[in-house]
């Protein structure tokens, strides 16, 4: 705990002491122009992205996650302390469970595994029709299927007409259409809402 | 209870007439049929024609119910209703997520309400037939010693029930009612003094600071906390030369994007690199 | 075609986990979340009838399955090339919806990217991004 507090204190001090970036001035050695060496070949349109993996988690062994892809292949995903994990909110590797769905982006290693920079666990992005607003959830229709979208206090937010996200979801239009990013509850037709995008 | 049987042809004529007019005159046959179980059953070429002909049949039935109510027209209405029930059963099994396409261009998921609605029509046709005269005559026609008040009540009640069972018509009454309830009760109003994480991330992603530094960021948010009126967002980072690091953004909780502070911590030599930049505004 | 500016979201397609509206390969039969692909509102006349971009005053060139678009995230200038593999998004349901980065804005929901294509230019936790859509890199 003390190490964590010390680390946070150091990072806070560093962050608040950082520079504001307001001018079109070079970032020195951090500028994109400072990159040298061969540019990594891009992925062709329609091609499978080798730096990307998706599937359902079949096993977790230390920092190694094995996921079964939709095409039946198994992906070995190597994580580090620098791998971000999204499971409705930023969290840690310990929050991942077998049966979770995931998308991963990182760097493909020579042994075929993916060194993950970012994991998005159970994340869904869907357009839906709003059938009802209840006290703790929205009833959504998505491609003729019913979805119960739970509102998590302090986490779920709404974006109205492109304005900054707020925690007030009472203006989500009943009978209207919205876009939702959320976390699927595995093996159910329920999700937890991260953000609802609505036009009001 | 003659008035009960007398009212049924009026109710049925209204439903079939309206349904027939929608099918034949509303236009865009191909679009209305696309995605319905009928389209799946008959294909894209035949389905629109069948849809149109069904509408013509419904209009003919509606006219018959009005001008010649009796056992024959009641039987025809029962056959039509029975056909709908069979069609809904096929749709529920073969294409459970397809729309009915029965009453409107709106594509809505089929549920028990569709079956109940078809059952209501069937029941109405049976009552109409039971009230028909012996030999199929018009001894209980709606204009024959009518009890207008009672008949009107029955027709209105049945129409209300029909609308309540029609998912395609929820926008006329159910959603306005729900919107009124939301306006009164204000569910999901949230916590007013909480700045959600998404707000800080949104400010950052739309900022000039992000446009200048996002090429260094290699991950999504690693961790975050609040300090001194700022939200600290931590990302895994990669230098242009490939070296690893940590990118820190201090995003003001008041959303002032111009005051976002950026720090890169190089993992190689543990020094923090900060660029002092001129600030033309 | 001159470049158009709009909003991009992402979707899942193919045999996938979770609520996935485009299971089974999408309208073109080849859609998969791991491929750099996208859904386009005018991939066919039937699709255009559903998405109805004209309802928002938007005119999009009809393009068939496999056509390549170059999509640039206006928030960070990252670009991805992707091919059409499905019909969508439902433009007419979100007329006038706008997302901006600074003064660069995208109006109307014009394109849906697969998860791999979207994550090449933005984080998947970002729901909507303003983009430029072009036929050349």
Protein described:
The complex is a heterotrimer of chains A (about 200), B (about 280) and C (about 140). By secondary structure, chain A is mainly beta. Chain A folds into two domains: about 50-120, OB fold (Dihydrolipoamide Acetyltransferase, E2P) (Beta Barrel); about 125-200, Nucleic acid-binding proteins (OB fold (Dihydrolipoamide Acetyltransferase, E2P)), CATH 2.40.50. Chain A has one helix and 14 strands; from the N terminus they run αββββββββββββββ. A five-stranded mixed barrel of chain A has the order 2-3-4-8-7. In chain A, a hairpin with a 3-residue loop joins strand 9 (about 125-135) and strand 10. Mean pLDDT of chain A is about 90; it is low at about 35-40. Helix content of chain B is about 55%, strand content about 15%. Chain B has two domains: about 1-185, no CATH class; about 195-275. By secondary structure, chain B is an alpha+beta fold. In chain B, strands 1-2-3-4-5 form a five-stranded antiparallel sheet. Chain B has helices spanning about 1-25, 30-35, 35-65, 70-95, 110-130, 150-165, 170-185, 195-205, 210-215; strands at about 215-225, 230-240, 245-250, 260-265, 270-275. The longest helix of chain B has about 30 residues, at about 35-65. Chain C has about 140 residues and is mainly β. Chain C has one domain: RlpA-like domain (Barwin-like endoglucanases). In chain C, the strands form two sheets. Chain C has a six-stranded mixed β-barrel with strand order 1-7-2-4-3-8. In chain C, strands 5-6 form a two-stranded antiparallel ribbon. Chain C is globular, with a radius of gyration of 13 Å. Chains in contact: A-B, A-C, B-C.
């Amino acid at each position: 705990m003390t190490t964590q507090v010390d680390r946070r204190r150091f990072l806070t001090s560093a962050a608040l002491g950082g520079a504001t970036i307001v001018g079109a001035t070079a970032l020195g050695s951090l500028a994109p122009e400072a990159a040298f060496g061969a540019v990594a070949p891009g992925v062709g349109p329609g091609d499978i992205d080798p730096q990307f993996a998706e599937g359902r988690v079949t096993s977790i062994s230390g920092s190694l996650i094995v996921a079964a892809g939709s095409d039946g292949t198994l992906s070995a995903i190597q994580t580090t302390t620098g791998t971000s994990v999204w499971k409705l909110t930023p969290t840690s590797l310990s929050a991942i469970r077998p049966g979770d769905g995931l998308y991963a982006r990182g760097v493909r290693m020579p042994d075929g595994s993916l060194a993950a920079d970012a994991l998005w666990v159970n994340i869904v992005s869907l357009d839906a029709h709003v059938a009802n607003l209840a006290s703790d959830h929205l009833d959504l229709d998505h491609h003729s299927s019913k979805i119960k979208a739970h509102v998590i206090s302090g986490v779920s937010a709404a974006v109205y007409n492109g304005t900054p996200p707020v925690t007030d979801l009472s203006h989500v239009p009943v009978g209207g259409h919205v876009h939702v990013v959320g976390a699927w509850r595995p093996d159910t037709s329920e999700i937890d809402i991260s953000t609802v995008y609505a036009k009001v | 209870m003659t008035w009960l049987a007398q009212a049924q042809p009026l109710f049925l004529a209204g439903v079939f007439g309206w349904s027939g007019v929608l099918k034949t005159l509303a236009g865009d046959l191909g679009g209305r049929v696309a995605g319905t179980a009928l389209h799946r059953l008959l294909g894209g070429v035949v389905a629109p024609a069948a849809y149109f002909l069904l509408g013509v049949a419904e209009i003919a039935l509606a006219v018959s119910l009005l001008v010649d109510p009796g056992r024959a027209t009641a039987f025809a209405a029962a056959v039509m209703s029975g056909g709908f029930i069979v069609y809904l059963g096929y749709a529920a099994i073969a294409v459970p997520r397809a729309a009915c396409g029965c009453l409107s261009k709106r594509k809505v998921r089929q549920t028990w309400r569709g079956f109940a609605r078809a059952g209501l029509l069937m029941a109405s046709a049976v009552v109409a037939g039971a009230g028909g005269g012996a030999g199929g005559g018009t001894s209980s026609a709606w204009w024959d010693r009518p009890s207008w008040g009672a008949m009107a009540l029955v027709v209105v009640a049945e129409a209300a029930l029909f609308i309540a069972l029609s998912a395609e018509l929820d926008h006329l009454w159910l959603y306005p009612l729900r919107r009124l309830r939301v306006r009164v009760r204000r569910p999901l109003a949230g916590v007013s003094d909480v700045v959600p994480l998404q707000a800080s991330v949104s400010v950052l992603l739309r900022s000039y600071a992000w446009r200048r530094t996002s090429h260094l960021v290699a991950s999504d948010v690693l961790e975050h906390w609040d300090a001194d009126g700022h939200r600290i967002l931590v990302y895994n980072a990669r230098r242009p030369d490939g070296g690893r690091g940590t990118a820190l953004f201090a995003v003001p909780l008041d959303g002032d994007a111009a005051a976002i502070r950026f720090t890169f911590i190089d993992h190689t030599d543990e020094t923090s690199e900060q660029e002092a930049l001129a600030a033309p505004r | 075609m001159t470049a158009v500016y709009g909003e991009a979201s992402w979707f899942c397609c193919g045999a996938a986990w979770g609520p996935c509206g485009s299971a089974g390969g999408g309208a073109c039969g080849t859609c998969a979340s791991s491929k750099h692909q996208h859904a386009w509102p005018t991939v066919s006349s039937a699709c255009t009838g559903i998405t109805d971009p004209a309802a928002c005053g938007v005119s999009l060139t009809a393009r068939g399955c496999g056509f390549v678009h170059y999509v640039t995230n206006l928030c960070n200038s990252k670009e991805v090339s992707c091919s059409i593999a499905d019909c969508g998004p439902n433009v007419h349901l979100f007329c006038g919806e706008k997302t901006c980065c600074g003064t660069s804005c995208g109006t109307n929901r014009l394109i849906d990217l697969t998860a791999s294509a979207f994550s090449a230019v933005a984080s998947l936790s970002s729901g909507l991004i303003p983009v430029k859509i072009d036929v050349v890199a």
